[in-house]
Amino acid sequence: MTAAMLDDPEGRALAAAIHERKRKTAMTTTDQLAAIEARAEAATDGPWETHDGDVVQSYEIAVKTGEHSYEREGIIPGEYVRENDAEFIARARTDIPTLLAMVREQRAAIERVKALHVREVLAVHEGYGEEAWCPNCRVHWPCEDYAALTATEGAE
Fold this sequence. Notes:
single chain; three-stranded antiparallel beta sheet; 4 helices; 9 strands; flat
């Protein structure tokens, strides 16, 4: 928004509406993440597996309860699923797409910021190589912003 637009009452109203929408979106995202995290924390520890149509904890953490039977903490195949586990499973269908959308939005935001920080060659020195800088930050390449944004790329 330009300064002239902010001098206009309609422009100020539009700017206020945009600011409020961004604030609510950020709050909703924070609330969504907190709710998803709470469900994950309340669920039985994993890893989980499927076995004969039941959701069970991994055999690695199963406790032998008899000659041929195993009990998994909180999840017993064919008998019951704890309420917190059922809530976690039921919400996964919407939680996972929500989280994926958030990851996509964050990646897009990172790409937009990275596009502001481009490598520009200033000179080529014999025996030394290229001298480059970030014209946005006005420092030698890579600038701190670009380095921070790309630090985890390719990391596993």
